[in-house]
Design a protein that fits this description.
This protein has 352 residues and is α/β, with parallel strands linked by helices. It contains ten helices and 16 strands. A six-stranded mixed beta sheet has the order 1-2-6-3-7-15. The two termini are 23 Å apart. InterPro entries: LysK (IPR010175), Peptidase_M20 (IPR002933), Peptidase_M20A (IPR050072).
Length: 352
């Protein structure tokens, strides 16, 4: 390993990379991959930072994302913590991938080919980077770079659906006993909320439907009033996006206009695979106690899982509770431990 790990990550954090504006950080990361000894490092047509290392038949994809949500977190080291937007979600996990790959033995690299993908637009509904590579790569194993904590392995993510509902109607005097457009839309929202609450009775967090009211607005255009809301849903494994759409349509009056987008299916991977076993053994070898996690959000795992039907987990340093917060940081000891865990796990996969 030729580059000091913390300095490499700090350099990535110092380059803003809000979704759609990842070019500068992609250039930085590909330059660092070349310096780390990757045989290939380039920016592909989608804008992803790509790297290849090794020449063996076993194909392993390490897919992280290099975009972030908006908002500045001043980059700094305080005590044993490195702060910055993306330290946890998810430049930290991707740099972890880069460094773990560079630490592999020559014997492992003769049996394995690593494909690194620093994907763009994961934080946007497009997931442009992940969608671009699904037809190009044919992995035997996949790791998704998301914060799990160095001792944890993420097996699943909820699905997603976004709804935009709109009601327009002719204007009338407020003295009339008639619901206006906004009131009709709020009645619809109340019915959806009641449906979700009924679905969630007796269910744990990963099995619940989550609703997130993202936007509500109302106004007047000419002689018509209108109201529009945008609602995000996180879907448990028992509810596919098309099933959720059917429920949401059933509660809507014919006067409402509904638009659905951002659909991703839920995903839950198997607990006992060569990949999970390799990670568990690596975690224990460093004094950790491995645990499995199931996330209530979504990730690029949801995008690629329908195409890559192989053992797949998400792994990376950091506390996901810090995602998108003004306090986002990764503990440096955990970041360094996660590099060792992944390096040892990849060695085991290659040499098994």
């Amino acid at each position: 390993m030729k580059l000091e790990p913390v300095a490499l990550l700090k350099g990535a954090l110092e380059i803003p990379s809000v979704s759609g504006e990842e070019r500068a950080v992609a250039e930085y990361l590909t330059q660092q991959m070349k310096r780390l000894g990757y045989s290939q490092a380039w920016i592909d047509e989608a804008g992803n930072a790509r790297g290849v290392l090794g020449s063996g038949p076993l194909q392993v994809v390490l897919l992280g994302h290099i975009d972030t949500v908006p908002g500045t977190v001043p980059v700094r080291i305080e005590g044993d913590a490195l702060y910055g937007r993306g330290a946890v979600d998810a430049k930290g996990p991707f740099v972890n991938f880069m460094l773990a790959g560079a630490a592999l033995s020559q014997e492992a690299l003769q049996r394995m080919t690593l494909h690194l993908v620093g994907a763009v637009e994961e934080e946007a509904p497009t997931s442009k980077g992940a969608r671009f590579v699904v037809g190009q790569l044919h992995p035997d194993f996949v790791l998704i770079g998301e914060p799990s904590g160095w001792e944890a392995i993420t097996l699943g993510y909820k699905g997603r659906l976004v709804l935009r509902a709109r009601r327009s109607k002719d204007g009338f005097h407020s003295a009339h006993f008639e619901a206006n457009a906004a009131e009709e839309l709020l009645t619809y929202y109340a019915s959806i909320k009641a449906w979700a609450e009924a679905m969630n009775l007796g269910q744990g967090p990963f099995a619940q439907v989550q609703l997130d009211l993202r936007d509500f607005r109302m106004g007047q255009t000419g002689t018509q009033s209108f109201a529009e809301l945008t609602l995000g849903l996180r879907l448990p494994p028992r509810l596919l996006p098309e099933q959720a759409q059917a429920h949401l349509r059933a509660y809507a009056s014919p006067a409402l206009s509904l638009e659905f987008f951002g659909a991703e299916i839920p995903y839950v991977g198997a607990k006992d695979t060569p990949l999970t076993r390799a990670l568990r053994i690596a975690i224990r070898s460093l004094g950790g106690e491995p645990v499995f996690k199931y996330k209530t959000g979504t990730a690029d795992m949801n995008v690629v899982a329908p195409h890559w039907k192989v053992p797949m987990v998400a792994y990376g340093p950091g506390d996901s509770q810090l995602d998108h917060t003004p306090n986002e940081h990764v503990r440096i000891p955990e970041f360094l431990q996660a590099i060792q865990v992944l390096q040892r796990a990849l060695e085991r996969l290659a040499l098994a």
